[in-house]
């Protein structure tokens, strides 16, 4: 197995254990929580045609859907595989989208993944 693949798998495992953390920031003297992704589970939503996953901002659950078109795949199996192989990029895009919109239910499009 090439070194790059081993490194990516190690990073993915680490993210699964501790979550993808972004720096906390102070807003008007208060510290806001970081968005984390401690749960590696994901599922394909056939109705919405995308992969669902969750993140957490403190005690609040944030639900995400990344559209199949954003993963550049059409079938459920390929979408899940693409999500797994690009997990770091997907989670980073999700965190950026959350910072912009601050909602508990967000959809990542192809535009968000660019």
The overall pLDDT, averaged over residues, is: 83
> How many strand units?
7
Largest sheet: 5 strands, mixed
Strand and helix order: HEEEEEEHHHEH
Q: What's the level 1 CATH class?
A: Alpha Beta
Beta-strand portion reads 25-35%
Topology-level CATH name = Double Stranded RNA Binding Domain
Apparent shape? globular
- How many angstroms separate the termini? 28 Å
Helix content: 40-55%
Please identify the oligomeric state: single chain
**CATH superfamily membership, which one?**
Shew3726-like
Task: Kindly describe this structure.
It is a single chain. This protein is of the alpha+beta class. It is built from five helices and seven strands. The chain has helices at residues 3-18, 68-71, 76-85, 87-101, 110-113, and strands spanning 26-27, 30-31, 35-36, 43-45, 50-57, 60-67, 105-108. The longest helix is centred in the first third of the chain and has 16 residues, at 3-18. It is globular, with a radius of gyration of 14 Å. The two termini are 28 Å apart.
List keywords for this structure.
about 110 residues, alpha+beta, Double Stranded RNA Binding Domain, five-stranded mixed sheet, two-stranded antiparallel ribbon, about 25% strand
Give the helices and strands, then pairings.
Elements lengths: L2 H16 L7 E2 L2 E2 L3 E2 L6 E3 L4 E8 L2 E8 H4 L4 H10 L1 H15 L3 E4 L1 H4 L1
Parallel strand pairs: 6-7
Antiparallel strand pairs: 1-2, 3-5, 4-5, 5-6
Concise synopsis of the structure shown:
This protein is 43% helix and 25% strand.
């Amino acid at each position: 197995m090439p070194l790059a693949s081993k490194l990516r798998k190690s990073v993915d495992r680490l993210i699964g254990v501790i979550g993808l953390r972004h720096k906390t920031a102070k807003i008007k003297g208060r510290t806001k929580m970081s968005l984390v992704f401690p749960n590696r589970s994901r599922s394909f939503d056939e109705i919405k045609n995308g992969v669902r996953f969750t993140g957490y901002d403190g005690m609040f659950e944030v639900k995400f859907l990344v559209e199949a078109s954003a993963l550049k795949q059409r079938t459920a199996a390929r979408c899940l595989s693409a999500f797994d192989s690009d997990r770091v990029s997907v989670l980073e895009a999700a965190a950026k989208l959350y910072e912009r919109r601050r909602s508990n239910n967000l959809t990542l499009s192809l535009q968000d993944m660019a």
